[in-house]
Design goal:
Elements lengths: L1 H22 L8 H4 L9 E2 L4 E2 L5 E2 L9 E6 L5 H17 L6 E5 L11 H11 L5 E3 L6 H4 L3 E2 L1 E8 L2 E8 L15 H11 L13 E2 L8
Parallel strand pairs: 4-5, 5-6
Antiparallel strand pairs: 1-9, 2-3, 4-8, 7-10, 8-9
């Protein structure tokens, strides 16, 4: 009888646990995967977008008919990694914009969660630093999930092929965020140089190193 009683208690506990898991399953709330799906892979066509720039004008990739491609950079004001890479992002635009590959910077964070990443602060930073590239706000936070960006900074190099923007590289800028003097692998530069030369990109994907994108829709 004692064994039967213990068995009954065990079965009851397992059943209650199962119901508890069901009760707390996020059936309607947005999960991280819902908000940031897989996104683009190498070789995919990137869709155009229209986002507000720091000059209050709307910017799309189609505004650059003469561009050969783009260095789409998801970044922001507050993240220490983004701050560490800021000058290198500026240097990329200075080096490659005239060669047909301008930087298109996009801030993906929700300003309600991170006020430092709001449009007013973006304008101040861009003015202070002298940005030569557009700095766009993903206000509805529907562009970064399309790309599959998860960090700031997170780079997507696009190359125009038959009127389409094809993804050619995804990941980090280089292999040392802390000290540019210690960089030994310049992933973005190597990829764009290869595109310009018409040669194969040796490294097409790397792990983006940075802060997670702040989105209130993500499961806490």
């Amino acid at each position: 009888m004692k064994n039967i009683t213990l068995l009954f208690i065990a079965i009851t506990a397992l059943t209650l646990s199962a119901f508890k898991l069901v009760d707390y399953a996020p059936s309607t709330s947005k999960t991280t995967e819902d908000v940031a799906p897989k996104g683009y892979a190498i070789g995919d066509e990137a869709s155009d977008f229209s986002l507000k720039n720091i000059d209050d004008k709307m910017v799309s990739l189609s505004n650059y008919p003469d561009a050969k491609g783009f260095i789409v950079t998801f970044t922001c004001n507050h993240c220490p990694y983004a701050v560490a890479y800021e000058q290198r992002i500026m240097d990329l635009d200075a080096k490659y914009a005239s060669l047909g590959y301008p930087v298109i910077a996009i801030s993906p964070n929700d300003p309600a969660l991170v006020p430092e990443d709001g449009m007013d602060e973006m304008k101040k930073l861009a003015s202070t630093k002298g940005y030569t590239f557009p700095y766009l706000l993903d206000e509805k936070q529907d562009v970064y999930p399309l790309f599959g960006a998860t960090k700031t900074p997170h780079i997507f190099i696009l190359h125009k092929e038959n009127g389409k923007n094809i993804v050619k590289y995804i990941g980090a800028i280089d292999n040392n965020y802390a000290n540019p003097e210690d960089v030994t692998e310049r992933y973005v530069e190597d990829a764009v140089d290869a595109l310009i030369a018409g040669t194969k990109i040796e490294v097409t994907t790397t792990k983006a190193i940075g802060c997670s994108i702040k989105d209130s829709r993500k499961k806490k």
